[in-house]
Specification:
Blueprint lengths: L1 H30 L19 E2 L3 E2 L44 H8 L9 E10 L13 E5 L2 E3 L1 E5 L5 E8 L4 H10 L12 E8 L1 E10 L4 H8 L22 E2 L2 E2 L25 H12 L7 E8 L10 H10 L2 E7 L8 H4 L13 H8 L3 E3 L3 H16 L2 E6 L10 E7 L4 E4 L3 E2 L8
Parallel strand pairs: 7-8, 7-12, 12-13, 13-14
Antiparallel strand pairs: 1-2, 3-15, 3-17, 4-5, 4-16, 6-15, 8-9, 10-11, 16-18
């Protein structure tokens, strides 16, 4: 009897517990609101009402019996689409359900903000009368003028910048000068830092790229410099007549076509004329500049030329190459070697005789891009010039200002940088051409 009473008590207790649990579960389920009912997207503005051929959509006759503003005839009443049938209102959704859809949030994050940036970067080198760099200047010491109008500075920095340098080596040098250059190439890597990058180009009758931009302290750079060495050129006695002259067709004692003769010489029989030499310096600088223009604009873009400065036979003109350099913010530095590096002779080589090759145009590239040039003779002097120029290019004053000119005209803008200090020499690019690539 007692066991039966105990069983009935346990069953009653379990029944009460199940009833209470069901009530609690029902209460929790009723507190959760239903999901929001899917809604059709809103109609595009201007498309309310029927669409009449030849008239389009307008304020046509609606359910209230109005007339269209675009026609005098009354349009038939349109039935309500099935998807617009009124439905019972659903309970208010929680706050989290009213947030924008995930796709809308992603689209907002991926939105591109376009702004026209007209900032111009001007690296400036300041030296005293002895050629030593002047340190300790502040932004108050500089004044920048663009097209003779003063512009305020936005950024002033003295921090060293990483360099992207393209070396252009002249292989048309005489053999003795070429040997000095070959011996000095091992010092190039010592003038660079791990943050720099370098590319190697050479030229004789045309430019050649030995390697693209690679780490300045990697093993690839010295290996490529060793492969890029050449023997140079040897001056020979020209042969302008006879079976070895290269011209087989003569008329009145002269070669019919001067192009048949070595070097396209125009000499006659009995007259010794030197064949024309080929020095494609313009083409080599242009090819290096095209490769350099792909580097990030935050880096200092430099072309380093090791040459005697002679130019003849290039397809590109000096004006075309200089414009490309000024458009892409590329500075040309150079170590002048060979006969042009001699005292006095290098200055005379700057004068160009009509119908003759250019003996030295490197100084024109340097002056037009705000670079620097050293005339050196001997292996030790050439090696030291690498370190001096790399240090000078890296440690410059960087001025940034906002141009007041339009970025769409494409006209040349002159730049004049002045320093409020006596007896100093200021080196900066004299101007530039605007580039859409730099403003994106």
């Amino acid at each position: 009897m007692n066991s039966r009473k105990r069983a009935l008590a346990v069953a009653a207790f379990l029944g009460v517990g199940l009833a209470m649990g069901s009530a609690v579960l029902a209460q929790q389920q009723t507190s959760v609101p239903n999901a929001p009912t899917p809604q059709e997207p809103a109609a595009l503005p201007g498309t309310e009402g029927p669409i009449t051929p030849g008239i389009g959509a307008g304020d046509a006759t609606n359910n209230t019996g109005g007339t269209s503003s675009t026609g005098s005839q009354q349009q038939p009443e349109q039935p309500t689409p099935p998807h617009q049938v009124s439905q019972p209102q659903a309970p208010a959704a929680p706050q989290a359900a009213q947030q924008p859809a995930p796709e809308q949030g992603i689209a907002a994050l991926n939105a591109t903000i376009v702004s026209q940036v007209t900032e111009v970067v001007v690296p400036v080198t300041v030296k005293d009368n002895k050629g030593n760099p002047v340190a300790g200047l502040t932004w108050r010491d500089f004044s920048v003028y663009e097209n003779n109008a003063r512009v305020p500075l936005r950024v002033f920095s003295v921090d060293p910048r990483p360099i992207s340098v393209a070396f252009v080596i002249d292989q048309t040098l005489p053999a003795n000068y070429m040997d000095e250059v070959n011996k000095s190439l091992g010092a190039i890597q010592g003038a660079l830092t791990p943050y720099d990058e370098a590319a190697i180009f050479t030229y004789t009758n045309g430019a050649k790229e030995w390697t693209g931009f690679t780490g300045a302290q990697g093993k690839r750079l010295p290996a490529v410099l060793a492969l890029a060495q050449a023997t140079g050129s040897d001056p020979m006695v020209p042969i302008t007549s006879g079976p070895l002259a290269g011209c087989n067709i003569y008329q009145n004692g002269n070669c019919v076509d001067p192009n048949l003769q070595p070097g396209r010489s125009t000499a006659m029989n009995g007259y010794i004329g030197l064949p024309k030499e080929i020095h494609t310096l313009n083409d080599a600088i242009l090819r290096a500049a095209k490769e350099l223009s792909t580097r990030p604009k935050e880096r200092l873009r430099v072309i380093y030329v090791i040459s005697d400065g002679k130019e003849y036979g290039s397809k590109a003109s000096w004006k075309e190459v200089v414009r490309y350099l000024q458009t892409n913010n590329i500075a040309v530095y150079a170590t002048l070697v060979g006969q042009s590096a001699r005292w006095g002779e290098g200055w005379l080589d700057r004068f160009h005789l009509p119908f003759e090759a250019y003996d030295n145009i490197l100084y024109k590239y340097v002056a037009a891009t705000g670079g620097d040039m050293f005339a050196e003779r001997g292996v030790n002097s050439i090696e030291q010039s690498y370190a001096k120029i790399a240090d000078e290019a890296r440690n410059q004053y960087t001025l940034v200002y906002a141009s007041h000119e339009s970025i769409y005209d494409g006209k040349y803008r002159s730049i004049d940088v002045r320093v409020d200090r006596p007896n100093v020499v200021v080196t900066a690019k004299p101007g530039y051409y605007p580039s859409a690539q730099e403003y994106k």
